[in-house]
Each structure stands twice: as structure tokens, then as C-alpha cells.
Amino acid sequence: MVLARGLADVPVRIEIRNRHTGEAIFSGDAASVKELLARHWKAGLEIGAANMAGANLVGLKLAAANLAGANLAGANLTGADLSSARMQECNLTRSNLTNALLTNADLTGANLTGADLTMAALASATLSNADLYWASLVGANLTGATLSEANLAKSNLTMAIFTRADLFWADLNAANLTMAILNHASLTVASMTKAILTKANLTGATLAGADLTAADLSEADLTGADLSDAILEGANLQGTILTDANLARVKR
Question: Domain range spanning residue 10?
Fold first, then answer.
């Protein structure tokens, strides 16, 4: 828990405590948690398992920081620099990460349920087994990101960029991927029932064994895509481009 006493904008003693043990792991005199962290920031800053739920960390520079296991639920990280940060198992439920820089960040197993990652930079980030249920990633850049076995069900991925991203066995059920860019992405055995892929770019994508039951693929471009063994029962393929696509053993 973050502890502070005093008037607003007046320096006070602030303690950032371990979310599990309650032990103080970082402390100092500052007007806010953001000011305290900004003052002491350095590459590799160790604040893993810290409890900073609801903290205002707008624009804060935490590149390469160790935030593994930290509680940042409801925190405002708009425009924050978290590039190459270690954020495994981090609790980011309902946090605001709009325009945040998360390039090369490790978010393995992180909880991002309901988080706002609109226009966030997540190129080459690792989100394996992360929970992004009902999260917003509108316009986010996930080029080359790893999202194997991630939960993206009911998430808003409109116009998000997943070029060459790894979405192996990811849960994209009822996700909105309207106009998303998934060229050369790996969606092998991904679950995409009732997903909206209207006008999505899936050129060269691998969807082998993917479940696209009742998915909306209208006007999507699947030129050269691998759909072998995919399930397309009840899928909307009106205006879908399937030039040179591999449709071997597709179930319809």
C-alpha cells in the first residue's frame, strides 16, 4: 500500500509497500508517488510486488524497471515509458495505459482485464498467458508481439496491428478485430468464435486449426493465408478475399 500524510503538493513521507507482506520496499519524501519514482528512477529500478493501485503515474519513465508482481490496478499510466520493463504477473486490472510505451516489455501472465491500451506501443512485447479480457487495444501496435495462450475474449482490437505476432492458442472469442492488421500473424489453433474480422488484413496469416465458428470475415483479406483444418461453420465470408489461401480440410 502507498502511505502518505500531509497537504496536497507538500512533500511528505511516502512508503510503497509489498502487496503481499506489507513490508516497505521503497520510501522517500515527495508530494506524490509519481514524484518519488521520477526522482529516484534509474534503469532496472527494483519495485517488484509493489502496491501502487490507483496511483497517478501519467507520463512516468519506468523503462527497464522491475515491476514483476506489482499491483497497479486502476493506475493511470497514460503515456508512461515502460519499455523493456519486467511486468510478469502484474495486476493492471482496469488500468489506463493509453499511449503507453511497452516495447519489449515482459507482461507474461499479467492481468489486464478491462485495461485501456488504446494506441499503446507493444511491439515485440511478451503477453503469453496474459488476461486481456474486455480490454481496449484500439490502434495499438503489437508488431512481433508474443500473445500465445493469451485471453483476448471480448476485447476491442479495432485497427490494432498484429503483424507477425504470435497468437498461438489465443482466446479471441467475440473479439472486435475490425480493420485489424494481422498479416503473417500466427493464429494456429486460436479460438475465434463470433469474432468480428470485418475488413481485417490477414494476408499470409497462419490460421491452421483455428475455430472461426460464426465469425464475421466479411471483406477481410486472407490472400495466401493458411486455413487448413480451420472451422468456418456459420462464418460470414461475404466479400472475403481467399486468393491462394490454403483451405485443405476446412470445416464449413
Answer: 2-40
- Residue 103, domain member (yes or no): no
**Residue 44: its pLDDT value, please?**
66
Closest CA to 47 of 74, 99, 82, 76: 82
- Separation of alpha carbons 207 and 228, rounded Å: 7
Contacts of 35 (CB under 8 A, 6+ apart): none
Could you read off the pLDDT of 176-215 as tens digits, one per residue? 999 999 999 999 999 999 999 999 999 999 999 999 999 9
What total number of domains does the chain contain?
A: 1
Q: How far is CA 86 from the centre of its chain?
A: 14
Q: Give the whole-angstrom CA distance, residue 88 versus residue 150.
A: 13
Q: Is residue 73 part of a domain?
A: no
CA distance 92 to 88: 11
Amino acid at 39: R
Q: Cell numbers at residue 10, please?
A: 507538500
* Residue 93 resides in a domain: no
In a domain, 200, yes or no: no
130/121 Cα distance (integer angstroms): 16
